[in-house]
Amino acid sequence: MTLRPLDGVVVVLVDTEGSENAGSVARLCGNFGAQLRFVDVRADLASRDCLKMAHPCEDFVRAAPRCAELAEAVADCALVVATSGKIATALEQGPLDTDRAAGFLPPPGERTAIVFGNERTGLPAALARRCHRVVRLPTPGWVDSLNLASSVAVTLTLLAEAARAGRAPRATVAARSRLRDTLEDALTRRGFYKGRGPAAFRPRLDELLGKLDFSDRDVATVQDVIIALTGDRAHG
After folding, report:
1. pLDDT for 135-167, tens place per residue?
2. pTM (two decimals)
3. How far apart are CA 10 and CA 35, in angstroms?
4. Per residue in 39-89, pLDDT tens?
5. Which of 49, 58, 107, 131 lies at a CB distance of 3.0 to 4.6 Å from 82, suitable for a disulfide?
6. What are 39's strand-pairing partners?
7. By CB neighbour count within 10 A (0-12 exposed, 13-18 middle, 19+ buried), where does 28 fall?
8. Parallel, antiparallel, or unpaired: how do β-strands 79-83 and 112-116 relate?
9. Cβ atoms within 10 A of the Cβ of 147, count?
């Protein structure tokens, strides 16, 4: 399959200092058709260094939203993925590859944010905890860290290759909501909530479902299994 733009992917740069880095990332977003947003940016986005590295995407830099907080930058994103080479949850797992990247591809009409931290210090752990995933990037050589622009380039390349392979995109928010409703019905019938009702547990259930890199087909299969186990055909 041919490469296609990653128009549902949002690159979020947090606390970026280097003007050249910001410009380079803007050009990469133009290369791959991704969106760009800045959080608490310290780089001079109007500087000659930034615009020189961004060429021919100068207007892309000028139009990119500047946000004060990460929550503002990712408010319209169904999945938020942090990148880190230091945070324990990232180091405990294998590096990002095309198979895992396929689970991050947004379905039509939805967005996935990929968050990158400061060039020197990386993404703070407190911000990473607000993301659905924390991943590290592949560095098989003796240097285990990438500069900011290289990190973005590797990530977007993996996502583009995953999209080209024709893998099904991540399940839609609507499909995940239907699965949550099915689970809540099953848990209610089994007395899981002990009279409290499902509302109190719903945020935790949404968090757990958000961590599953399911396609719409995967969601439908899990729903069918739950319905079969509970003997309820109301959702079939």
Report:
1. 988 888 877 778 999 999 999 999 999 998 877
2. 0.84
3. 5
4. 999 999 999 999 999 999 999 999 999 999 999 999 999 999 999 877 766
5. 131
6. 14, 67
7. buried
8. parallel
9. 12
